Amino acid sequence: MVEPQANHSARLTRALRESAFTAAIAFGLFLPLIGFNTVQNIRNELILETRWPLLASLVAIIAAARFAQVLVISPWYERRRLAAPKQVAKTREHSLAGNLSAGVILAFAIIYPAIALWTAGFQGAAKWIDNFGVQILIYVMLGWGLNIVVGLAGLLDLGYVAFYAVGAYSYALLATSYGLSFWVLLPIAGALAALWGILLGFPVLRLRGDYLAIVTLAFGEIIRLVLINWVPVTNGYAGIANIPRPTFFGIPFNASESGFAARLGLEFSPIYRIIFLYYLILALACITGAITVRLRKLPLGRAWEALREDEIACRSLGMNTTNTKLTAFAMGGMFAGFAGSFFAARQGFVSPESFTFMESAVVVAIVVLGGMGSLLGVAIAAVLMIGGTEIMRELDFLKAVFGSDFDPTQYRMLLFGLGMVLIMIWKPRGLIATREPSILLHRDMRTVRSGTHAAAGLLQDRA
Amino acid sequence: MNNAATAADPAESPMLLRVDHLTMRFGGLLAVSDLTFAARRRTITALIGPNGAGKTTVFNCITGFYKPSEGRIALQCGNADVWQELDALTERGSRSLVRSDGSLFLLERMPDYEVNQKARIARTFQNIRLFPGMTVLENLLVAQHNLLMRASGFTVLGAVGVPSYARAQERALDRARYWLDEIGLIERADHPAAELAYGAQRRLEIARAMCTEPVLLCLDEPAAGLNPRESAELGEFLQRIRDQEKTSILLIEHDMAMVMEISDHIIVLDHGQKIADGPPASIRNDPNVIAAYLGVEQEEVPEAEMMVS
Predict the structure, then answer these.
(1) Residue A69 burial (10 A CB sphere; 0-12, 13-18, 19+)
(2) CB pair distance less than 8 Å for A320 and B63
């Protein structure tokens, strides 16, 4: 669909005009708000400061956004609406776009620490890698784990944090009492969390929907209360401190002679450990994602999805739904257990306060927001929700707007709520709602639909 | 066996399913009362009756979704001689008798999924129960779940991609392709099941049930909502299943033209009780049946009979 040249230049003129108009309005609005600032000097006098660069950059951003909207986004949107692609063609194109963006995101995740080091330096990068990178990836992993239970098997689990807690405390207790290493305890913590998943699964198998949600919610609380009250083992509210940190295959990240930095002849810096942790959680998250992708194409994954669609039909086809549900709980629990033991190893300290219902709610929100069953959607939602929370700590310029005691993080829940409402209005089935079939019969969709994207043929049936 | 061996079946083929004194109560409601009938190998047996007669309840009891209050439901595979073991098996309290030459299953003792998995009874539902978000092909593969699970070494071997699993999946795809051809949906294989037209969804549900390779296929009103042409095609399709697939069919249906056309044997239920049992020709003229369908009181049966003649 090529637009005529005249149409294009007319649109360009319109875009320029509208962006100039928007810039003028923005300038008028922001001149008093941003352009001038009052500060107290040392003699308690109020002086007026001007902030022309900030004002100019804001106006430029707004003008550019309007320009892009008129010239690029709205024509694209109109074209998309007019084209009204057939359902199958859309799925194909979607999978193409999905694969591309998944690759781009993974590549970005791999070089992210380098970017952070380059832009923020050795001291500044720690915050960006740890608070943003590691924190987001923990939630990506939790989201992908819960995605198996909620997104694929359709079992609404509001107590997912329980498995996370089991994993974290398994590592914390076994590492502090028996001195076992992280690499030994990682699978053990996963196995224990999976076992808890099965134990939870048995009593609640008969429940569905709301009832299941309430029971799992209660289970999450039970675990937390046990952690608080079983003082001889868990040390109650005080938690467990001095948990051994993971080592680089036996080489500790410390300032000693045999430490990681010393051995490589580098100057000691905590950043090495942070970068190591970043790649560790990235690898764990990738394993979670890869296993999920693989399982979806196997009979077990299809059984989970069938269970979500219609449990009675599943039973009429000879499927043991009990076992199928238990495997979903166990698998989801196992990934939360991995994430939990990573969490304990990273913090070096665990206490029941890290495992409140709020955590479960955030993970469920990530899965629902991302689109049930979509790995890419869940990852994007985790970046938005966790990254968004973290970025609010960085928005110091808002203090300039709203006064110095304004703390953006206080508005976190408000923004969460607003975000959820908007998503429910615009994308009621999550950011990525289209489901990719686990297997295709027709490798070449041209036999089915003529309007299929040509490149799509390359992506058919990787099963 | 006298009580179970029902009235003359012209084919006199061996008995496949035997329902003895089946009773189902829901609290105070007696949905099925002392029902005894049999379905024979390679036949189409229809279960008809007015709305609320208890037909679907009988289906749910046979397929394990309900546990009957009283009665026995037995299914036999292979050598018909195993029927002699039925009473001994019932006494013993076990669920099934599996021999190399023939097996016997007591369905009322089995959980619902085992009725399909072990006794090989497949069913469809009155209100279609497909997996709407999954593609047509995936629907047919879920039906082969147990087979594929075993082939994939309960996921472990499949995850590492052993060749035997790839072959099993290819066979499963072949079976799916075969049934997609049969129901004329091969072109639509990669579309979500929910996008299909109503009639196609009905056909897909039958094909999905057939993918479990059943010995008995229970169809709950397969022609409901179909137009006359589709109904006629469905009738031919069911006869093809009976003749080519060695699968017997138990059918609940309100479309009398179709029932009379394709059934070998008909059982009529009213208020949970069997009021007639026989080949289509005799059912057509049975005064009790006509009375039940026309809603005439029992005393007025002779009049109804007169109306017919």
Answers:
(1) middle
(2) no
